[in-house]
Amino acid sequence: MGCSSCGTNSGKPNGCKSNGGCSTGGCNRMNVHDWLRNLPIADTDNVCRIVEVSFNNGSRKEFYRNTTVQLYEKGDMVTVEGVSGFDVGEVSVSGELVRLQMKKRGVDENNAEIKKILRRASDRDLDMFRQTKLREPEALMRARSIAKKLNLEMKLSEVEIQADGRKATFFYTADGRVDFRELIKAYASEFKVKVEMKQIGTRQEAGKVGGIGSCGRELCCSSWLTNFKSVTTIAARYQNLSINQTKLSGQCGRLKCCLNYELDTYLDALQGFPDNADILETVKGNALLIKKDIFRSMMWYTLPDSSRHYALTIATVRKIKALNLKGTRVEALESEEIQGGKPKEVEPEFVDVVGQISLGSLEKNARKHKSRRNRDNQQRNDQQKRVEGRNEKNRPQNQPPKNDNGNNNNRNGNRNHPGNRRGGNK
């Protein structure tokens, strides 16, 4: 089933084509890649008859036994047994890979309590399923208002209604115990369904809501993470992270789960550092350990009456600690060259040019440019006069000089013409 951004009228996503993994979390998230899908099945009698079916766009997955003669593949819509009715889900994993998923979750394949697949979802089942899903947003808003009227310290995060509309599961979070006996009666009379209340943690709630983390990727709890382990500030201290709750907390308000991802690597690296080396005895006083640089195998110390930090290697710290055990104090600490560090960058030398440009120099430059323009104009005028004088010398004697308009300078030339004289026709 598609999300609102890429869904079409047919109910299938238009962009991702039911492959899942979009950032909105609406395209069957937490999918498992079926890498055995294209392999031929040699023994069809002993093939795994249990399939994994996902509900509510992958937020809930359960195993169902296939008692029919049909073989279902990933993406098929099936009708399964529900509570006093039926439910509709999508096949997420089928074949031999289901055995690995069941082993991972600790489910016995021969368990008699595993529900069955009734049939392939028909058009009537799908129409009823879509109509039921349209009721969920309105039911969630109404359920929140009822819980608020009863003054219950709880937060409803999601409502999942069964495909046949006979059962509704309300997921909520709460800090303590909630007495929701009156709430169940109110929900049953309001929605006319069988009510089931299920408490989840804040991490599960963030996985259902979805979102983008500070790393720029989809939240781990909404994409692949299913087992949530406790995260403490000790993990941050081992990794030399500043204890800042705003940066270390996720969208759920708890410490980020990714703090545990690299914790084992840091713990293995810390095995090479000496123990009980928090204080080094010197003549000037006791040097206190302020930081351990795991990547460079360095330890940083500071003296009580000094703001200087001393970087010492592990071998040097061991030597000083051995001398202290013998009752000998070292004279002074000397910072050693940091191992594996980047070469020190040479800062460029900047020249102070403030005050070197004055108003007088600017005026001098302006006068220089102005005199150059005047000299160029004078040269052009002199050249034009020389060309005009050369043309005047080469003009014939009987041709009168021309004015600026190209006409003869003799203004009365046309008046002396015989045809223009008065009485010229006499």
Which architecture of the domain at 129-206 per CATH? 2-Layer Sandwich
Rg, Å, rounded: 45 Å
The quaternary state of the protein chains shown equals: single chain
SS summary, helix count = 10
In percent, how helical is the residue content? 25-40%
Going across the biggest sheet, name each strand in turn: 2-1-4-3-5
What is the element string, with H for helices and E for strands?
Answer: EEEEHEHEEHEHHHHHEEEEHH
Number of strands: 12
Ranges where pLDDT stays below 50 over 5 or more residues in a row are 7-26, 404-417, 419-426
CATH class of the domain at 129-206: Alpha Beta
The CATH topology of the domain at 129-206 is GMP Synthetase, Chain A, domain 3
Strand content: 15-25%
| Anisotropy-based shape | extended
- On the 0 to 100 scale, the average pLDDT is 80
Q: How many strands, which pairing sense, and closed or not: the largest β-sheet? A: 5 strands, antiparallel
Termini separation comes to: 115 Å
Structure class: alpha+beta
Outline the structure in words.
Helix content is 29%, strand content 17%. It has helices at 97-105, 123-149, 181-191, 202-209, 220-223, 233-238, 245-248, 263-269, 314-325, 359-393; strands at residues 50-55, 60-65, 77-81, 86-93, 117-120, 155-161, 167-173, 194-199, 279-282, 285-293, 298-302, 309-313. The chain has 10 helices and 12 strands. Helix 2 (123-149) crosses helix 3 (181-191). It is α+β, with helices and mostly antiparallel strands. The strands form 3 sheets. A 5-stranded antiparallel beta sheet has the order 2-1-4-3-5. A 4-stranded antiparallel beta sheet has the order 9-10-11-12, with helices on one face. Strands 6-7-8 form a 3-stranded mixed beta sheet, with helices on both faces. Among the domains are: 50-121, no CATH class; 129-206, GMP Synthetase, Chain A, domain 3, CATH 3.30.300; 229-269, no CATH class; 273-325. It is extended and about 120 Å long. Residues 7-26, 404-417 and 419-426 have low confidence and may be disordered.
